[in-house]
Specification:
Radius of gyration: 22 Å
Low-confidence stretches: 1-22, 465-469
Number of helices: 15
CATH superfamily of the largest domain: Type I PLP-dependent aspartate aminotransferase-like (Major domain)
Distance between the termini: 40 Å
CATH class of the largest domain: Alpha Beta
Structural class: alpha/beta
Strand content: 5-15%
CATH architecture of the largest domain: 3-Layer(aba) Sandwich
Oligomer: single chain
Helix content: 25-40%
Number of strands: 12
CATH topology of the largest domain: Aspartate Aminotransferase, domain 2
Shape: globular
Length: 469
């Protein structure tokens, strides 16, 4: 983000036709401590030779660091963290299986594991995808189509490492960690593809066709989408894959696939794996894991599914990037992936999180927020702040006001990926948004939304409808 202005002479610039605001910050932003902290952290100034601290954290980490300054690290139990993208990990979701509380470490678990993952885990993932997405199809996955990786970010980094020279298209807004991944490697040029608020940030097939026609040969996206909570459904996803077939590689981040409310919480997961013709020919790379769907973010067990040639390269590069995934946790995970068990788990997950979504939507509506839409997937809500008083109508200032009430959200500006640092993010279409997570337990959600209420009352923006739960 080195393009952010640091000189006063650059603060009075032209009005942006796309946003209707000046390139430089407003007087309200200039007087805001949180805006100053953001600019100072992302100016590109290097106090130590060779160090670029702006590469050190994603948006979620940055927000946590600001919360630490307000006491979050010392007393996290007093806070409502609606920022971090993690689901509740407790065992009290009705119909969900109990998570292991201990793990038997075999002699194999003491050894270095294969950087592509142990074979039983790779076989279990392939079997799950065949059972849920490849029934009746001639082409099916084998263990050679699966690479086990130590978390989704590691999977993305490995994929980026093996890509050839290409234009890589990514959508705005999208997952904050893509920003760092897209900026680390120079074997491809990252091309932003803005999505429209008026269209509920939907990815249409004709948008993909347009990008391919202008030379984009790799496309990265989350589906279901982070942070907007929207899903590209199976029919349109199939159309997108037909357009891309033999023309582009699709990297599909499906970590939120289990949080699907479009099929009446029947346990179904929408996946690109449904629409692949030949698992070794179609250039589709799918990333998923235990983190979100199985509510085990601390295990750091994820996978990449794709053509054998891709998987072989992705498995090999782990030897110099991350060293591979923890073997004992892989061994413990194998039995979790039994297809009938997973379908039952997804059904319980969907009912529970849809109820939490409905609660959050109701509370926000009672507070006077006008929602652009109701999310149909994930556990995120992309909250528009534009109609709030100016002092809190942008993501950073609303975030700062929430910190004072011991509530954490993530400013929308972090989801406007800017890996090449070519523009001032304060002109961002995400500037007046925050991402609200309803991943935490219900008591945390209630506490967080009570904090929202206090912020609105403080700035005389509360309509007097809600009861504060």
């Amino acid at each position: 983000m080195t393009a952010i202005r640091s000189g006063a002479q650059k603060l009075d610039e032209v009005t942006s036709s796309s946003t209707g605001r000046t390139t430089g910050p407003s007087e309200n932003e200039m007087g805001s401590d949180i805006h100053k902290k953001f600019r100072e952290a992302h100016e590109g100034h290097k106090a130590h030779a060779g160090l670029d601290p702006s590469r050190a954290s994603t948006g979620v980490v940055w927000t946590s660091e600001r919360a630490y300054e307000h006491g979050f690290l010392d007393h996290p139990e007093e806070w409502a963290n609606l920022g971090q993208g993690a689901p509740e990990v407790e065992d009290d979701i009705e119909g969900s299986f109990k998570r292991p509380t201990s793990i038997d470490i075999t002699m194999t678990g003491r050894e270095y594991g294969p950087t592509a993952g142990i074979k039983p885990m790779r076989e279990a993932v392939a079997n799950l995808y065949n059972a849920h997405h490849r029934q009746g199809k001639d082409s099916k996955y084998t263990w050679e189509n699966v690479c086990i990786v130590p978390g989704g970010r590691a999977g993305l980094i490995r994929i980026a490492a093996v890509l050839g020279n290409a234009y890589l298209g990514f959508f705005i807004p999208d997952y904050t960690a893509y920003n760092e991944m897209l900026s680390l490697f120079r074997n491809f040029a990252a091309i932003p593809i803005p999505l429209s608020k008026e269209d509920k940030y939907h990815i249409h097939a004709d948008k993909i066709l347009e990008e391919i026609k202008r030379g984009t040969s790799v496309i990265l996206t989350s589906n279901p989408r982070n942070p907007t909570g929207k899903m590209v459904g199976s029919a349109e996803l199939a159309e997108i894959q037909d357009i891309a077939r033999n023309r582009a590689t699709l990297i599909m981040d499906e970590f939120y696939g289990g949080y699907n409310y479009t099929t009446d919480c029947d346990g179904a997961v929408i996946s690109a794996a449904d629409n692949i013709h030949d698992v070794n020919v179609d250039d589709i790379l799918i990333i998923d894991g235990l983190t979100k769907r199985f509510r085990l973010p601390g295990w750091r067990v994820a996978w990449v599914v794709g053509p054998k040639d891709f998987i072989k390269a992705i498995g090999s590069c782990g030897s110099y990037l991350d060293g591979g995934c923890n073997v004992p946790f892989q061994e413990a995970a194998v039995k979790m992936l039994e297809p009938n068990n997973v379908r039952k788990e997804m059904k319980a997950l969907q009912h529970h999180f849809r109820d939490k979504r409905d609660y959050v939507v109701q509370r926000l509506t009672e507070m006077g927020f006008e929602l652009d839409y109701v999310p149909d997937s994930t556990f995120y809500l992309w909250l528009n702040l534009e109609k709030l008083p100016e002092a809190i109508n942008d993501g950073l200032n609303f975030f700062q006001a929430c910190l004072e009430e011991k509530v954490i959200v993530v400013p929308g500006i972090f989801f406007d990926l800017n890996p090449s640092r070519r523009r001032d993010l304060f002109d961002s279409p995400c500037h007046h948004y925050v991402r609200v997570s309803y991943g935490p337990r219900m008591d945390h959600l209630k506490a967080g939304l009570d904090g929202f209420e206090r912020v609105l009352r403080k700035y005389e923006a509360f309509p007097g409808k809600g009861k504060g739960a």
